[in-house]
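Q: I have two molecules that I believe assemble together. Could you output structure tokens for the complex as a whole instead of separate predictions?
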Amino acid sequence: MEKHTPFEEEIRQTYHLEAMDSAFSNKLDSELRKRELSLTARRPKLTWQWSYALAPLLLAFALLFAVGPNRVLAQLKTWFGYAPSGGFVSDTGSIRVLAQPVSQTKDGVTVSIKNGVFTNDRSTLEVSFENVPASAHFSQNFGKPVCEEESYLLLPDGTQLTGYDSFDAIPADVNEAVFVLPCIPMRTLGKAPENWQLSLKFIPAPDDFVVYPVSIPEPQVNLEDKPGAEEAVKAPAETQDGLPVKDIIEILAVVEKLDAWVLGFGYKTPHHLEDYRNNVDLSVVDAAGNLVPHSYDYEDVGDLVNELFDLNKNNTEFYYSGLSAISIPKDNYTFPLTLTEVVNHIGRIDIPRDQVLFEFDAGTNPKPGDVWEINQTLDLGGYEVKVLNAFVTNKVALGYCFKMDGGEKVQQVDVYLPDHWSNFGSGSGMPFDPPFIFDDCVMIDPLPKGVIRVALQQEPSLLLGRYLARGTWSPEE
Amino acid sequence: MEQAQKPTPKAGTLSVMATDKADIAEAKASFSDLYRQHASRVYYYLYARVRSVAEAEDLTSQTFITALENYYKLKDPAKFVPWVFSIARNKANDHYRERYRHPVERFDEDLQVNHELSSSTLQMERMIELERLISALKPVEQEYLRLRLVADLPFAQIADILKQPENRIKKSYYRLLERLQAQVE
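A: Yes, here they are, computed for all two components at once.
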């Protein structure tokens, strides 16, 4: 059986599993044995004649896979623009918007749809709720049925497009629909008005409707997802500021606004490569070495990152971690611009979880402010971690914290108390710079007394290396 | 719960035969042995999907009968577990397509049962909230939890079933746990 943490066990318990009924199990076993015997007598063999018949089909599959990446790229290049709230748009002539905001009020609760964008690619609505009583929230009514039913757009022909605020595209000849909301999400059934229906009408987008041009740069990062690529990434030839440089930041899409470029990017990673990383801060400089101002732009292009994720989620060669978007004000930079970020590459020490690491005596009356010096060095899979002390916290809630020194390599250790139920854990988070000194806390109220055993919750985080991730970009001519 | 094991050939047991390569057939364990090794986990997984004993039993039967009928196609006996779970997933998906029913339909009944069983109000509320959070997860995230915690499969086999890289699944799984833990707290 796989080792699970207490929290994993909690999750498992939510399934209320019961053992399979032995009578059923035996009956099925008997049935399978009978079938097994009869199958041995009549199994056909696949002959080479069949393989000739299959050859054209196999060739077609081979061609399909051979042209796959180019077709994906070609598909990306068909995007015409990016509409805030509407995502990528392949045909601006077909964009429609909500004719007017709509709302409905029941028992003082109002559901409103203030905006809507309808393209050939999808339909998006801005749905909001007002005056929903706090007592209707599921957290106030534990054990009672919670709204789970999805909302949908009901088209005149009866078609239902399910979703919350994003739906499939509505056919161009359909100019109205009803937004049906069976119940308000996250609310206890019966505690807030239900069965909402709001009629929507669509009109062509006005002339001043903003659609920004989008460009999809040619891939710059060349990593091959095959044996050897990992070593190439781990041992790059170039260094900068004493750090190895890895050209893995890929610019995935550029939205061109009047006064700024918005760059969507990610860290291109072969599927087989561990990618746990924590980052410090992105830096952008131009080719003349001047710093380029940038900001994380989520207001206008909040959905861009989601779009990029969706576009790349089925890529079988690579994936992009750390997808993000920055806005760069337009100016006379010397191109190309170079994006860099110091990155800690994090792995995990492969040691069994749940092992008791140390214990301490909390005495008979532990209270906030108490500190117990421990100064015990642990050997975690060949790496040393020193437990400096234990202390009682009441910052977030009452609990025990453990201050640890992971030295130059062990970045974090998660612990729990195997003999006591804990509500949750906390701590100082994962530090970036060694030596790694951190707190890990177990919130527990009331505080257990006497000898407390402390065990390993999950594999400790290990600093595998630090490097400079890099990518470049120039606007298209 | 059984541990994931590579099926091993057993002297005197019947091999489900009839591929062109006798050595492959010989390397395979009796299907009945495989059934007994893995039935519980498949059943648990299906129960976690449909939340009904009768339907879980029905789908477990369908899964193993389909697996038996196609067992001769399985060239690598070591892949039996991910293979049979792939069949189970397909059966569960077909089940929902047919019934057009959401998997959490029985959720509230479960909550009430749990309500009575839990010993402490705090734990009960936490479990109920956890159940609600899990039911609101994306389907693939729910699948990570079912395959890892209900079916008790190692990441390598989950990767085979979901056709995703093991590292990506590990990363997604641990991030999911962190997120759930933060939410439930």
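A: One point stands out. Chain B has two domains: 22-99, 114-184.
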